Amino acid sequence: MQVLDFELVENDIREALSMPLADAIIYKERIPNDDVRRFKFHDERAFVKFVHTLKRALGFKVAMDSSNYYIVHGEDDYGDVIAMFRGRRFQSTFVELAFEKLGIPLKEYPGEYLLDLLKI
Q1: Which burial class, exposed, middle or buried, applies to 8 when counting CB atoms under 10 A from its CB (0-12, 13-18, 19+)?
Q2: What is the pLDDT of residue 24?
Q3: Can you tell me the distance from the alpha carbon of 27 to that of 11, in angstroms, rounded to the nearest whole number?
Q4: Angle between helices 89-102 and 6-18 in degrees, nearest 10
Q5: Are 71 and 57 in contact (CB under 8 A)?
Q6: pLDDT tens across the length of the chain (120 residues)
Q7: Is residue 85 within 8 Å of 41, Cβ to Cβ?
Q8: What is the Cα gyration radius of the chain?
């Protein structure tokens, strides 16, 4: 069982928030859809950095199997945006601590809510 060092997590959060946004967007892929831009991130630090740049953000946590999915509906200079990240245990701890530190509310839902939330 892995024991988390919260001081290391705090340092990781600080590093993620200081990451240039241009570096963060390297770790995302665009999910095609109608009017709302949707992005899936492959790195928890890049995800947190992107979410931190939004004008407003509401987070959702959806637990499925051994993963947690984090979906953020927010707004930037170009309009509505949805960002998603799938995290394992350590990544989930990182994302949740970062959201708490940033004051981003996180609502938790069961797994079947995921597809409806993403409107896929």
Answers
A1: exposed
A2: 80
A3: 20
A4: 70
A5: no
A6: 355 677 888 888 888 889 888 788 777 766 666 677 889 999 999 999 999 999 999 999 988 778 899 999 999 998 899 999 998 888 999 999 999 999 999 998 876 666 666 654
A7: yes
A8: 14
Distance CA 5, CA 105 (A): 24
Give the pLDDT of residue 33: 61
**Residues 47 and 97 sit within 8 Å (Cβ to Cβ):** no
Q: For residue 15, what pLDDT is reported? A: 87
Q: Is the dihedral of CA 20, 16, 111, 79 positive or negative?
A: negative
State the Cα–Cα distance between residues 89 and 68, nearest whole angstrom: 8
Token pair listed for 3: 């024991």
Q: Among candidates 10, 11, 15, 39, which has minimal Cα distance to 27?
A: 39
Neighbours of 69 (CB within 10 A): 21
Residue 67 has, within 13 A of its CA and on its CB side, a CA count of 8
